[in-house]
Every structure is written in C-alpha cells, then in structure tokens.
Amino acid sequence: MTGTSEPLPRPDEGAWLETIALFKAVREGNQPAALRLLGTSSNRDAVIGGLLSMLGMFLRAESPHKLDQFIAASHRAGPPPAFGARPFLPPIEH
Q1: Across the chain, how many H-helices and E-strands are there?
Q2: Distance of alpha carbon 66 from alpha carbon 50, whole angstroms
Q3: H/E/C letters for each residue in 4-36?
Q4: CB neighbour list of residue 44: distance below 8 Å, 6 or more residues apart
C-alpha cells in the first residue's frame, strides 16, 4: 500500500494512557471495555492513531512468516462478527 493521507493527531499524555488501556482491553479480549473506552474518549482520533502506531510497532517485531500465515488464514476465514458482539468472559483463575 502506498500513498499519503492526513495524519491523525498525536496523542497527548491522557490520550496515550487511553491508547494503552485500549490495547490492553483488546489483548484481553474485552471488547465491551474497548468500545466503552473509545465511546467516552475526549480525543478518539488521537487514541486510534496511537493504537495504530502501537500495533505497527508490535507487528514489526513479529516474524514476517508468522504474519503472512495470519493474513492468509484471515482471508480464508472471512470477516469476524462485529467488534463488541461477543460477550467478555474473563479467564478462569486457578
């Protein structure tokens, strides 16, 4: 993919903390919390931009072969249910 577009705003300290909380919620599979955070954010565009930056840094550290396999599996599987449609079930702790 190539091209340029208007950059998203750079997160300030508050938006950056929201970005980290959003990343953690997605990592935990807590889609309702992630959607609540985005819905109540005072700077949603900066949080989304921060999340995309975090995701980009994370993916660049991953094995290209592993990422290619994930992309191919995503093509085969088709679109997932709508984000937030699945209830969050916290992991069972022993």
Answers
A1: 4, 0
A2: 24
A3: CCCCCCCCCHHHHHHHHHHHHHHHHCCHHHHHH
A4: 38
pLDDT band per the 50, 70, 90 thresholds, residue 79: confident
Nearest to 18 by CA among 41, 52, 45, 49: 41
Give the structural domain span for 26: 13-77
DSSP helix/strand/coil, 84: coil
For the stretch 12-41, pLDDT in tens is 899 999 999 999 999 998 999 999 999 999
Instruction: Locate 3 and state its tokens.
Output: 């091209």
Residue given tokens 């190539």 in the structure block: 2
Residue 69 domain-assigned (yes or no): yes
Task: Please tell me the total count of domains within the chain.
Answer: 1
**How far apart are alpha carbons 44 and 49 in whole angstroms?**
8
Quote the CA–CA distance of 68 and 59 in Å, as a whole number: 11
